[in-house]
Amino acid sequence: MIKSAVTIALVPQIKTGPWIYWDNLEESMGKAAALGFDGIELFTASGDAIDAGQLKTLLQQYKLKLAAVGTGAGKVIHGLTLTDADNTIRKKAIAFIQEMMEFGALFGAPAIIGSMQGNALPGETHSNSIGLLAEALKILDQHAGHLRVKLIYEPLNRYETNLMNTLDDAAAFIESNTFNNIVLLADLFHMNIEEADPAASIQKNIQHIGHVHFADSNRKPIGFGHTQMESIANALTASGYDGYVSAEAFPWPDPDLAAAQTIRSFNQFFK
Ligand code: LER
Ligand code: MN
């Protein structure tokens, strides 16, 4: 069965980003639980930014699961990416993600590699940067195996990365590198920009998809833009997808209304 999740960001440096809840972990979890979400997706400053024992207690108290942990703070706060030309920075990026993976694994949750994949910067060839990404993901894929969790790789739109922008490209990359634990994230906002037909692309690449970011064409909550959600939802349900559909969307018009709109849309399309 497809599960719902909502994002909670606890990193002040990304305050303008597409996350529904902010600031107070417990209050946000209480609200998510009251609306009937199955899980939360957390963005923290590092793998030890919040106390694991406290999170465990709160997850039990509110009957929520940890759906995934985001690693974007590694880039935003520390300037780390997996494709930096500097080997020392790449190593730090890998270590940062490993720490996040270890935190998530305490709850059986995968980490997401989005902006930390970086870019092929001027002076670097695209194939060299893809090679650096593959090298780093090989190490992280093995780490995921040790931790018995998946690791989620997210193709982003062209304004955020020039490495891979579509599910087709990311699926081909995964297949050619024979990773064992890496799954893809279908972010409906990025897909709205990059995919000719988001529903068809999901259908074609479904065997690799392990997580979905639920946002409309304008990155507002689903229902506030022009994404044709019905065909996308049909592609997911018909395939037997049983992962999370997680609201990574702007808190528009405010976090509470954005969360309410999200669960309304989730129930409309997936229940
Ligand atoms: C991360 O999940 C994502 O979608 C990025 O666009 C955030 O910068
Ligand atoms: Mn995303």
Give your account of this protein's structure.
By secondary structure, the protein is α/β, with parallel strands linked by helices. It has one domain (3-270): TIM Barrel (Alpha-Beta Barrel). It has helices spanning 25-35, 52-62, 73-76, 87-105, 126-147, 167-177, 188-194, 198-205, 229-239, 255-270, and strands spanning 3-9, 21-22, 39-43, 65-70, 111-113, 151-153, 182-187, 209-213, 244-247. Helix 4 (87-105) packs parallel to helix 5 and helix 8 packs parallel to helix 9 (229-239). It has an 8-stranded parallel beta barrel, surrounded by 6 helices. The N and C termini lie close together (9 Å). L-Erythrulose is lined by residues 72, 112, 114-115, 154, 156, 160, 187, 213, 248.
Q: Report the helical percentage.
A: 40-55%
Number of domain units: 1
CATH fold-type name: TIM Barrel
Report the span from N to C terminus.
Answer: 9 Å
CATH architecture: Alpha-Beta Barrel
Rounded mean pLDDT score: 97
- CATH class group: Alpha Beta
Query: How would you name the oligomeric state of the polypeptide chains in this document?
Result: single chain
Which features would summarize this protein structure in a list?
271 residues, alpha/beta, 8-stranded parallel beta barrel, single chain, binds L-Erythrulose
